[in-house]
Amino acid sequence: LLQYAPRMMALVRQANAAVGSSAEGEPSEEAQRYIAEHVKVTVGDESRVTLQVGAIPLMLQGRDPRE
Q: Three-state secondary structure along 38-58?
Protein backbone atom coordinates (compact mmCIF):
# COMPACT_ATOMS: atom_id res chain seq x y z
CA LEU A 1 0.00 0.00 0.00
CA LEU A 2 2.77 2.44 0.89
CA GLN A 3 4.34 2.12 -2.55
CA TYR A 4 1.10 3.40 -4.11
CA ALA A 5 0.63 6.27 -1.64
CA PRO A 6 2.69 8.94 -3.48
CA ARG A 7 0.95 8.21 -6.79
CA MET A 8 -2.49 8.17 -5.20
CA MET A 9 -1.81 11.44 -3.35
CA ALA A 10 -0.76 13.06 -6.65
CA LEU A 11 -4.01 11.89 -8.24
CA VAL A 12 -5.99 13.25 -5.28
CA ARG A 13 -4.26 16.63 -5.63
CA GLN A 14 -5.03 16.69 -9.37
CA ALA A 15 -8.66 15.75 -8.76
CA ASN A 16 -9.02 18.40 -6.04
CA ALA A 17 -7.54 21.03 -8.36
CA ALA A 18 -9.93 20.04 -11.16
CA VAL A 19 -12.93 20.18 -8.82
CA GLY A 20 -11.81 23.46 -7.31
CA SER A 21 -11.38 25.14 -10.68
CA SER A 22 -14.80 23.84 -11.75
CA ALA A 23 -16.66 24.95 -8.62
CA GLU A 24 -17.72 28.30 -10.01
CA GLY A 25 -18.46 27.37 -13.60
CA GLU A 26 -16.80 25.62 -16.48
CA PRO A 27 -13.61 23.71 -15.69
CA SER A 28 -10.36 25.35 -16.72
CA GLU A 29 -8.63 24.06 -19.83
CA GLU A 30 -6.12 22.27 -17.61
CA ALA A 31 -8.92 20.62 -15.62
CA GLN A 32 -10.68 19.61 -18.83
CA ARG A 33 -7.48 17.96 -20.11
CA TYR A 34 -6.97 16.22 -16.77
CA ILE A 35 -10.53 14.89 -16.71
CA ALA A 36 -10.45 13.78 -20.37
CA GLU A 37 -7.13 11.96 -19.91
CA HIS A 38 -8.26 10.09 -16.81
CA VAL A 39 -11.58 9.11 -18.37
CA LYS A 40 -9.70 7.81 -21.44
CA VAL A 41 -7.26 5.81 -19.31
CA THR A 42 -10.02 4.45 -17.06
CA VAL A 43 -12.26 3.38 -19.93
CA GLY A 44 -9.31 1.95 -21.86
CA ASP A 45 -8.14 -0.13 -18.91
CA GLU A 46 -11.44 -0.93 -17.22
CA SER A 47 -10.45 -4.43 -16.10
CA ARG A 48 -7.31 -3.21 -14.30
CA VAL A 49 -9.18 -0.32 -12.68
CA THR A 50 -11.90 -2.72 -11.52
CA LEU A 51 -9.28 -5.01 -9.98
CA GLN A 52 -7.63 -2.10 -8.21
CA VAL A 53 -10.93 -0.86 -6.80
CA GLY A 54 -11.77 -4.40 -5.66
CA ALA A 55 -8.42 -4.60 -3.87
CA ILE A 56 -9.09 -1.56 -1.69
CA PRO A 57 -10.70 -3.51 1.20
CA LEU A 58 -7.69 -5.84 1.39
CA MET A 59 -5.24 -2.93 1.34
CA LEU A 60 -7.20 -1.17 4.08
CA GLN A 61 -6.72 -4.31 6.17
CA GLY A 62 -2.96 -3.98 5.58
CA ARG A 63 -2.87 -7.00 3.25
CA ASP A 64 -1.23 -7.24 -0.15
CA PRO A 65 -3.94 -8.00 -2.74
CA ARG A 66 -1.38 -9.80 -4.91
CA GLU A 67 -1.02 -12.58 -2.34
A: HHHHHHHCHHHHHHHHHHHHH
